[in-house]
Amino acid sequence: MDPTGQKYFTIIDYVIFALLLVASMAIGLYYAFTGGRQRTTQEFMYADRSMKCLPLSLSLMATFQSAVAIIGTPAEVYANGTQYWFIGCSYILGLLIPAHIFIPLFYRLHLTSVYQYLELRFCKAVRICGTVTFIFQMVIYMGVGIYTPALALNAVTGFHLWGAVLATGLVCTLYTALGGLKAVVWTDVFQTVVMFTGQLAVIIVGVHQAGGLSDAWVKVRDGGRISGIDLNPDPTVRHTFWTLGVGGVFLMLSLYGVNQAQVQRYLSSRTEKEAVMSCYMVFPCLQVALMLSCLMGLVMYACYGNNSPLEQQYITSKDQMVLYFVMDMLQNFPGLPGLFVACLFSASLSTISSAFNSLATVTMVDLIKPHYSMTEARATLLSKMLALSYGIICVAMAYLVHLMNSSVLQAALSIFGMVGGPLLGLFCLGIFFPCANSIGAVIGLAAGLVMSFWVGIGGFLSRMPSSVQVLPLNSTNTVPAASGNITGPAVIDAASRPVGLNGLYSLSYMWYSALNSSTVVLIGLVISFMTGPTKGADVASGTVYPVMRTAQSLLHKLVKPSACCTSPPEHTQIDGHKEMNGNIKEDAGTEEETETFLTSNAVSPVEHETSV
Ligand SMILES: CC(C)(CO)[C@@H](O)C(=O)NCCC(=O)O
Ligand code: NA
């Protein structure tokens, strides 16, 4: 090892990394030349609505699990202990609610994009606002996703930064544009396997280097890295059970309930039941992913203790730690560093490809198609060109992220809360409040976005001049004391309890999604009542979830268990469309058929909906 701490790749590491790119490309080419050869938008965007549950669930998990989580979570656990693990509690409601409310509703409407829902429920303007907000969110997120692994690799091994960005950007764009959603889902499956294998290998070797399981356990326990449940209700404390387990539910809903990338996967499944099942199966997959990345943080602590490479100034930021650890511990295991780098890039490729495909889909379906009529061949070609263009935008965004500088995990989760939160609010307003009208929806969304940027940017600026930025240079502060639970920003918060606006600015980023979505719903309702609420009869059928009716029927079941076989099923109001599900071949037909179905559906409200 070189005195500056610089680590080097061996030839076998390069080969493994190259193999990942080649294999992903090969899967893309396979789907470009088999099946319908990606000649229809139905195949390109929705995989002919024929996907099965298992690949879908892995793909659903992979979409929002990028290199950010792989290197951000261990760095967080190394520094602050396992408190972050409690985010796993939010996965329960965060997946049950989408599975039982959002998926049945969207699936039965047979949408072409999730934003089409907004037009059915409100009007075209709301749909466009939703689409533009989504594009904004995913474009920034893509930048973080592609830049993170490249930066870590560059910092630790000296690998060319923009070389890595361009290589992954190019490969990913090509397989997404050529192979459509089928290629995206199947590369996700392959990349998830690589991701788990890489993490597991490093954990096993790391435990061995730390002197075995029991030694490693004693070290992390004595180092205070095993956090108890923190029930402090203060919403400004960055990570507590409440911010993670409850605030996290809103984050999960915005990602797994109403995000186009995910809804597109639900809609591409063969049957509604498989869509719901795939959402259920995300739960164990996400728990495994969370467990692996938390264990990685603990193993890192077991190996380094408080004597981190950051403190030794081998690296300059927390986000470089994981890769440094891998290169440091695994240098005698040729190929393993390459496997881990493949794991890191797998995680990011699977995220970026989903982003490209979903962005191309919404641009086509929501922004272009309604305004220009074109042939199917033209539309498919244009969708592929769009996927390519988003590839270029992605690399450009990476350059912007390069200019920012914060913990990548917090940055990514803040984006989800700041832009995804208001979108979640918009959908909830439509789904749960039949009285909400279009004006309320637009103004509510705007208010949510203003709130989000006010609090988000205010929080960022109010923390700026503090010691957070200088921490890495000051060796005594680099690693928080053995008590472990205290983070940089939390120390400041605790020292001077913020009041007034500063109180709002110091809100934990884990509450952003909840705050912003509630703002949209509240303002949306107030404006709707001021401008004349929508009457039940005017709400398009199947676009509202019958909260009261479901609650009544649940209550009925609880009180009179014998009555459950005679009482109607929960979703009676949309059962009218149920026969569609069995009939995939037909409804997977042309785009025109789908559109006609939807328009006729939108203009003829069904009577039983009005009682909601
Ligand atoms: C978003 C969750 C919480 C769940 O998917 C997790 O995967 C995560 O922490 N993601 C961080 C962002 C990223 O990895 O790109
Ligand atoms: Na991913």
From TrEMBL:
One GO process term, biological-process aspect: inorganic ion transmembrane transport
Localization, UniProt: Apical cell membrane
Membrane-spanning ranges: 12-33, 53-72, 84-107, 128-147, 159-181, 193-211, 240-258, 279-302, 339-360, 381-402, 408-432, 439-461, 509-530
Positions of region (Disordered): 588-612
A Pfam family annotated for this UniProt entry: SSF
Entries under InterPro entries matching the protein: Na/solute_symporter (IPR001734), Na/solute_symporter_CS (IPR018212), Sodium:Solute_Symporter_SSF (IPR051163)
Catalytic activity: (R)-lipoate(out) + 2 Na(+)(out) = (R)-lipoate(in) + 2 Na(+)(in); iodide(out) + 2 Na(+)(out) = iodide(in) + 2 Na(+)(in); biotin(out) + 2 Na(+)(out) = biotin(in) + 2 Na(+)(in); (R)-pantothenate(out) + 2 Na(+)(out) = (R)-pantothenate(in) + 2 Na(+)(in)
Keyword list, A-Z: Biotin, Cell membrane, Glycoprotein, Ion transport, Membrane, Sodium, Sodium transport, Symport, Transmembrane, Transmembrane helix, Transport
GO molecular function: monoatomic ion transmembrane transporter activity; symporter activity; vitamin transmembrane transporter activity
Mode of membrane association: Multi-pass membrane protein
GO CC terms: apical plasma membrane
Protein origin, superkingdom: Eukaryota
NCBIfam families in the cross-refs: sss (TIGR00813)
Function, in words: Sodium-dependent multivitamin transporter that mediates the electrogenic transport of pantothenate, biotin, lipoate and iodide. Functions as a Na(+)-coupled substrate symporter where the stoichiometry of Na(+):substrate is 2:1, creating an electrochemical Na(+) gradient used as driving force for substrate uptake. Required for biotin and pantothenate uptake in the intestine across the brush border membrane. Plays a role in the maintenance of intestinal mucosa integrity, by providing the gut mucosa with biotin.
Sequence similarity: Belongs to the sodium:solute symporter (SSF) (TC 2.A.21) family.
Assembly information from the UniProt record: Interacts with PDZD11.
Name this protein carries in UniProt: Sodium-dependent multivitamin transporter
Organism of provenance: Cyprinus carpio carpio
